Amino acid sequence: MSTYFVTISTFIAIQAIVAYGLNIIVGYAGQISLGHAAFFGIGAYTAGLLSTKAGLSFWAALPIVLLICGALGVILGLPSLRVREDFLAITTIGINFIVEAVFLYVPFFGGAMGLGGIPKIVFFGVRLKGESLLALCLVCLAFVILICWWFTKSWAGLGCRAIASDETAASSMGISPVRFKLLAFVLGTVIAGLGGALYAHRMGFITPADFGFPVSTMMLSIIVLGGMGTLWGPLLGAIILGALPEVFRPLADYRMLLYGALLLLMVRFQPGGLLGDASVLMNLLKRMKGGDRHAG
Amino acid sequence: MLLSVSDLTVAYAGVEAVSGVSFSVGEGELVSIIGANGAGKTSILNAVMGLIPSSGGRIEFDGTNVTRLPSHLRARRRMRIVPERARVFAHLTVRENLLVGAYGLRKAIDLQKKLEWLYGFFPVLEERSAQLARTLSGGEQQQLSIARALISDPKLLLVDEISMGLMPKLVETVFEALRDLNREHGITILLVEQNALASLRISNRGYVLEAGRIALEGNADALVRDAGVREAYLGI
Ligand SMILES: Nc1ncnc2c1ncn2[C@@H]1O[C@H](COP(=O)(O)OP(=O)(O)OP(=O)(O)O)[C@@H](O)[C@H]1O
Ligand SMILES: [Mg+2]
Q: Would you state the pLDDT for residue B236?
């Protein structure tokens, strides 16, 4: 495998992990979040600080990273989830800007210069880089997908999906809206934190801009493109959006424009995403399987 | 009394839709509230379930004051609603809709047995169990909504305009089913209906609601015989 391919694949895997977290919040629980990169950043900075300043290994730091991301998910999520849905979009954008500003202006976090010197992950004495790091990221991704699959099959997941479908009706069946929205939000932020930790150790050097609002927009584009609330949508979206700028190098400067246009087009023409039911792609797949249900 | 509501007032943006309504439903009773379009029937049921806030009055259920309790906690006390226009979970399958109805009751009820019992009542739900609820017809959604409420073994079932969108033959079946549930299974039911005759026929008692106030109350058969009610609501 070429280094180039390995590098791109590693980024795609990390982005997919973070996008899976967002998919739980937006896709399953129906809570729009435009600030998901904040928690990606919190995970990355926590991992970076714990390894550089506290000297912890990736493995020793990981539980702490996930715990902090979950705790901040509760603290930042709770007030947002109590407000009406249209405000949620605004408050989550606010969270993103505030978190980015904290990284930027509080000297402890390294300011605009960022945080450097984050060591490589060591696994049984082997420093992970290149293909071995990609392997670790893929294992983490598989684990996250497994959690998402389990979540859709669980009672908690059912509760979240019921709330997304009709909050009032769900609450009249004994489901507490705030509790389940918060559960989904926190699960999403913890998964984002895992992606952040991998990212920090992959880069060795992180800056506040790595976790800005444009990154949140990209995460949302990934799940909208692939299919919100589907199991494989975030992966497909991350692959397409991760590979596209590489294929069309000249377009790299217009990335944000591309994501914006893509979001609009998808919402207009394929609101369920590429893997949503009744999408063009799904219909094609069904026909290829020969199991045209409409015929029966 | 299982449910006693006193002086209930519901207002939308300052305009009162329900003004000081008092009524009660005793354990094992089947009670109807009848009234014209816009009389405030849905507002009353939604306020009892906690889906909209009441601006005055007191709601007592099963010996507790639930006036300020959020709806999911009223549901946990086994109060259930079959809401106006069904409100099934569109993106969940039929079976998942039923499971949501049994949320948090895994230990209290025998899920499999309940499902079989409900499929006996509504065979179409078994045939369509893997289908998304939004692909059901209006009448099928209504049946799903009833089954979703019944799966929890409710102490009090609030039913809003159950006959809406059902074919006449099914209306009859559904009203019979409600009577059965009340008489044979001991489920207490508060029914809100425009189909006054059909609902009074199966009820013990009834209230007539006019412009947000109770105009008349009494035994169901007395109401059916009442000349004013006959003319205004029964069309006979
Ligand atoms: N969300 C709302 N906002 C403003 N006014 C409302 C709202 N819901 C109901 N109303 C008003 O309150 C009054 C009572 O409505 P409600 O839905 O309780 O009547 P209803 O007896 O159930 O009528 P129907 O038989 O047509 O279902 C009506 O005048 C209606 O216009
Ligand atoms: Mg009504």
A: 61
Q: Is the CB of B196 under 6 A from ligand 1?
A: no
Question: Exposed, middle or buried: residue A84 (CB in 10 Å: 0-12, 13-18, 19+)?
Answer: exposed
Residue with more model confidence, A296 or A115: A115
> A158, B92: Cβ pair inside 8 Å?
yes
Q: Which CATH number does the domain B3-85+154-232 belong to among 3.10.129.10, 3.40.50.300, 3.40.50.2300, 3.30.70.141?
A: 3.40.50.300
Ligand 1 pocket check for B8: Cβ under 6 Å? no
Comparing CB atoms, the residue among B90, B91, B101 nearest residue A173 is B101
- Report the gap between the CA of B59 and the closest CA in chain A (Å): 16
pLDDT value at B108 more than 60:
yes
CATH class belonging to A3-295: mainly alpha
* ipTM of the prediction: 0.89
Answer yes or no: do A173 and B49 touch at CB < 8 A: no
User: Residue-wise over B86-101: b if at least 16 C-beta within 10 A, else e?
Assistant: bbbbebbbbbbbbbbb
- Looking at the predicted structure, is the pLDDT value of residue B158 above 80? yes
Please report which confidence band the pLDDT of residue B185 belongs to, taking 50, 70 and 90 as the band edges.
Answer: confident
- Answer yes or no: are the C-beta atoms of A34 and A190 closer than 8 Å: no
